[in-house]
Amino acid sequence: MSDPSNPNIENRSTPQWGLMQRELFWAPNEEKHTPLNTPNTVQTDPDKLKQLAEERLSKGGWLYSSCNAGQSWTHYANRLAFYRHQVIPRQLVDTSRRDTATTIFGHRVAAPIGFAPIGINRIYHPTGELSPAKVARELNLPYCLSSAGSCSIEDTARANGENDGQGVRFFQLYWSPDEKVSTSMLQRAARSGYSACILTTDTWQLGWRHDDAAAGNYAFYREHGAGDLALQDPAFRERLREAGIDPAKDPKRAGAEWIDKHIWHGHSHTWAEIPGLIKQWKDISGGKPFIIKGIQSVADARKAVEVGVDGIVVSNHAGRQVDGAIASLDALEKIVDAVGDKTYIMYDSGIRGASDVFKALALGAKFVFIGRLWVWGLSAAGEEGVRHVMKALLAEFDIMMNVAGYPDLEDINRDALESLPKGTYFPGTPSLT
């Protein structure tokens, strides 16, 4: 919609995101440019955004944000799967009253799009997690804080709107084998208004990432150490004292103590332990939702339902953990068929634009999480970069609902797609990044 005075705008519960396109078109008349839209760096294209992030990040920061497991086959599979499913546009549909708003675990949010949990954001920008948390609040999108984050649970909550009812935030848990530390993190999250716990189950240990390994690129062993999230945790500080480590004098040892023993520790957990963790979180939080992230098999999806989770995130960690694994989008189809009426299904991995969001929703996800896009925005221009990238994605999705003829999110289902056979490849040699 290009007319900013169109009366149908008032019928929406969310802003007319698509008007951002008009603003960008008009901006040169007033010699205005966003941080990512200058004469030399025109950025809404994800490939160009990625290139800009590489130019502005340190070598270590770039490697950590871009590395995939092994030869990147799972990452490629994710992108190929999105190509395999193609949208069927509809014509002469009244899209004037379209609305992107939806509900997730009782929270009314602006779109079925959230900020995926990504660790150690200070390697991308000095403001770390505070910038995406603030932007998420402004846009009324859910924000997920990683327990491998740089900024504290409490500071990130304040940036997201602590106790004012405006920010929707979830806490992603890397499950420490040290019960005292994991309990402390959950207690802090509950006190700070995080309204769900998301347990990531595919990363007890990092997958093998060639470039990171070759360069010895591991920020937790270097300048960033344990970060405020860890150093403000009373249980972890007690463990540091017991180990005789002063984080002020030896931040590298403190960082190793945190990451090696409490985050990516290599100790496996099992399904038998999940009911106890669910109960612990429910008791601590007053019954707030518990979610498992990393589900790729139908058997695991059924098991998750059996143990009583409130939702699952179908994800292969964007191809960063298991090389040569199935595309997460292909997993989504089967999982929705198996348990789609039994739990709240979310999706992440490989999303680069509005059509990818559309396709994941059409295949049965109720909600999607975005990762690398907002990280690249943060890397390129801090808070303004995150804001620009996420507003552009919302605008693109809003416009897509309009031009494709799908005014309601409920209309976006499998009938909206033509799906090519598995094994279909991109024509030519386009970027798969």
Task: Give an overview of the whole structure.
With 433 residues, the chain is of the alpha/beta class. It has helices spanning 19-26, 46-56, 59-66, 73-84, 130-139, 153-160, 179-191, 210-215, 227-231, 234-243, 251-263, 274-285, 298-307, 328-339, 354-362, 372-404, and strands at residues 37-38, 41-42, 85-87, 102-104, 107-109, 113-115, 143-146, 169-173, 197-200, 290-295, 311-314, 344-347, 367-370, 417-419. An 8-stranded parallel β-sheet has the order 6-13-12-11-10-9-8-7. Helix 6 (153-160) links the parallel strand 7 and strand 8. The longest helix is centred in the last third of the chain and has 33 residues, at 372-404. Keywords: Oxidoreductase.
Task: Give a short summary of the structure.
The chain is α/β, with parallel strands linked by helices and 433 residues long. The chain is 42% helix and 12% strand.
Q: Helix tally? A: 16
CATH names the topology as: TIM Barrel
Could you give the count of β-strands? 14
Count of domain modules? 1
The strand order across the widest sheet is 6-13-12-11-10-9-8-7
Q: Rounded to an integer, what's the Rg over CA atoms?
A: 21 Å
SSE sequence, one letter per element: HEEHHHEEEEHEHEHEHHHHHEHEHEHEHE
How far apart the termini lie comes to: 30 Å
Overall mean confidence score, pLDDT: 92
User: How would a textbook summarize the main sheet?
Assistant: 8 strands, parallel
